[in-house]
Predict the 3D structure of the following.
Amino acid sequence: MKRLQIYDTTLRDGCQGEEVALTVDAKLAIAERLDAFGVHRIEGGWPGSNPRDAAFFGPASRLGLRHARLAAFGMTRRPDITAAKDPSLAELLRAGTPVACIVGKTWDLHVKTALRVSRDVNLELISDTMAFLRKHLDEVIFDAEHFFDGWKANPTYALECLRAAAAGGASTICLCDTRGGRLPDEITAGVLAAREAVDVPLGIHCHNDGELAVANSLAAVEAGCVQVQGTINGIGERCGNTNLTTLIPALQLKRGYACVSPTQLAGLTDLSRFVDELANREPFKQQAYVGQSAFAHKGGLHVSAVRRLAETYEHIDPALVGNHQRVLVSDQAGRSNLLSKAREFGFSDAQIEPCLKELLRELKQLEHQGFQFEGADASFELLLLKAIKGEKLSHFRLLGFRVIDEKRSEAEPPLAEATIMVELPDGAAEHTAAVGNGPVNALDGALRKALVRFYPRIAEVRLVDYKVRVLDGDRGTGAVVRVLVESADAEDHWTTVGVSNNVIEASWQALVDALDYKLYKDEKRRGRGGKAAPRRSQAPRARGER
């Protein structure tokens, strides 16, 4: 297989993205995951630009990376001093990395307006900086900033800049589409021109302002680049950088390049979600290869086909990148969707066939009301169970609840209190109350307090996420809302849904499903020979208000 060098700049260029901020600890954790994934170079930051990047390199050098080499980022020396006396280059060397990546101007417009020096001086800055750093480091990469724009405007000068970097001893020259506006044919032509000009390995660094960073990087590799730079999930300034979670599988699975091992490639989806989690970003469901929806099928015709042969609608086996096939249920669902989903939950065709028609009718009716089960598998599994058994699964019966949200003065925070009465399986009524930091939190607390004496394992459930979406915004505050509640325990996580024009009622529906599902899955696990289902607490049940 043909080999490529993967250069990851998530920790530097990626952090320039809007709303992306990584702590030093987060950057260290990501660096370890990138190393385990098999990238070859990890750009940790710009030591001279901010304290956080400077603080990264010391502990990073002690990580014991097995696959990757750390790189520090910097720029060509200042025009008024030598490279040996440039404080930013000194800071870069203090980072102690074996690799440096130096950005330099190759577009004469920037030389004139940004650096405000002559073109000849800029050539000296490039060659001097390369030569100085090569005395101290194993590897120095020259990032030819704005190369493709510079080559388009003044090809002679842009190529002179590459020759200056090569003369200074650059290990690799990385051609940058810094504005992200070039098209693949322009990238190809620029790379071919660079190959003619210098006898140094070439890399490619693209931005995504034209939604072409991956396509442009593929074109550059086909034209002869042997290093690709990018970020996990494509994070970065403006519209982002080349998305390595798309580029790597495209290169490896579609073009036959050896980027990482097959086992490492199977960790791509986990890596993508890990970076999003530490960057506090909501994962993009429709992201190619690693997104939650990348191998999700909703239309009945599609599901019918993939049940017979996955290749009919899937361009790769999702397991190759650590993802998996999903069948969605909605008002567009057909028999194939429901049968496939039922099998996923462990139900047989014989169980589901007799109630399939009625289930499909109820599903479409609920979706018309605003329910959506695509992201609420737990609620849908309970709906399946109801269809099979002929009645709704319920571990308790609501006798009534009341929620009070009170604000006594402008300066004081609101007070929320919920009172609830439920009937338990033994016929006894539990009447409890709880306070919370909001009405839903108070209701959740009161419900748990009422149930935990009979079902102790309810205490294991924790709220992971809570989302409210307005479904008909033209009705203002009287609009119907959909609430999604994501819950988890030590073994699993699950999502439930509720819909109402009252946000408390919608939340109640989702909370009840969440707890019913917890108890149901524990009972199902016991039936498979797993851990015993929750037993009733031996503590006496107090009556009345709590």
Remarks:
- The longest strand covers residues 397-406.
- Residues 529-546 have pLDDT under 50 and may be disordered.
- The chain is about 40% helix and 20% strand.
